[in-house]
Amino acid sequence: MNLAERDQNVIWHPYTQMKTAALPIPIVRGEGALLFSEEGHTYIDAVASWWVNLHGHAHPYIAGKVAEQLQTLEHVIFAGFTHPAAVTFAERLLQILPQGQSRIFYSDNGSTAVEVALKMAIQYWNNLGMPKKKIIAFRDSYHGDTFGAMSVSARSAFTAPFWPYLFEVEFIEVPTAGKEEESINQLKALAAQGDVAAFIYEPLVLGTGGMIMYTPEVLDQLMAICKQHQILTIADEVMTGFGRTGRTFASDYVQHKPDMVCLSKGLTGGTMALGVTSCSENIYEAFLHDDKSKTLFHGHSYTANPVACAAGLASMDLLLQPETQQSINRIVQRHAAFSQSIKALPQVLEVRQQGTILAVEFEDGGTSYFSNLRDTLYSYGIANGVILRPLGNIIYVIPPYCITDAQLDQVYQTIRGMQEIVTGKRHHPRPYLDMLHD
Ligand SMILES: *Cc1c(COP(=O)(O)O)cnc(C)c1O
């Protein structure tokens, strides 16, 4: 049996209908933006392995730092104990995080980073003796797959079986072009009712929602309303963090700074799982009390795992090198030029870009997320040696920053090819987004 067949006997894959899925592609090695399969095929990782990889696969510098840490201290309980990697990483994160962040709480992934932020926000108001109940989120948002994170995410087909078990959330429109007023008015109306504990949002780009983008200006207006009504703001930068939007954090484009920030994905450069929830001193202080019931009773076995922190530190070293910023700028410019060249093509509904994130929305040909176009586009990419995982009719590129110009050309060429195979007529105006609201 080859690896894919052995996999089929024992593995249940994420977001995969195991009955109809093709055999998984066995990857045995990675280098730079490339992944190599057991059969000798080469793939350009244009989605950075689900948006996590920043500096390329099996990066020797990160690998060296991780190996060193593994031979020094692999793990230690993080209640009552500490270690150099966690402290140094926290110090250095606070230096680059948006202004106003002063404490780092470690967890394991993006979903747990969101859970922690929600618990901090709710308990903050409890600890102050003015419990507020409501949480506000964007209608098309995605904040993770655990129950709290699902609750603040779009009520989409992905979570339908769980709707009865999710806590109530007030959803507002995403303030995309033309919808700014509606979104602002909805937030104002909710804020005026009082009782709002927090607003959680993906700054500038809603990833899983379909790479939906909105401006820093309108986010600033939403933030101003929150500040005015003492609503805590939680920036979920799990996807947008660490250079994706062109700046270190998407929040760097905005004047008003969040009270909390959630990080994961690029946090370790894509090396291993780690989550961070940072918060302002103000929030932290609300938990300082002689009364032990005011404690944040949350933690995971692997909280602040030293190996993950070492990977995070190494990735940050690379991120802060001028060469990396140059690469980011290069990708931003090349994406912009490519956008210009395809946006008028007949099958292209819209091209969106924020920094290194590029999204192309195709005519759907009368399909939906669960039908053929998505699979056709995906297979076409694979056949052309490029990993692109469409969200329904939306194809996007989030490359590792080390991707070469030649590799980017191949990615762009593949997207052009996709445009040619999308021949159907449009049935829904926004098929993927419609699905989200079914
Ligand atoms: C991926 C993602 C999450 C969830 O992170 P996981 O590590 O997959 O649990 C949360 N928020 C956003 C914005 C994400 O893109």
From TrEMBL:
One of its GO terms (molecular function) is adenosylmethionine-8-amino-7-oxononanoate transaminase activity. It comes from the Bacteria. One of its GO terms (biological process) is biotin biosynthetic process. The keyword Nucleotidyltransferase does not apply. Pyridoxal 5'-phosphate binds at residues 110-111, 236, 300-301. Pathway: Cofactor biosynthesis; biotin biosynthesis; 7,8-diaminononanoate from 8-amino-7-oxononanoate (SAM route): step 1/1. The record marks 15 as: Participates in the substrate recognition with KAPA and in a stacking interaction with the adenine ring of SAM. Homodimer. This is Adenosylmethionine-8-amino-7-oxononanoate aminotransferase. It comes from Pontibacter flavimaris. The gene is bioA.
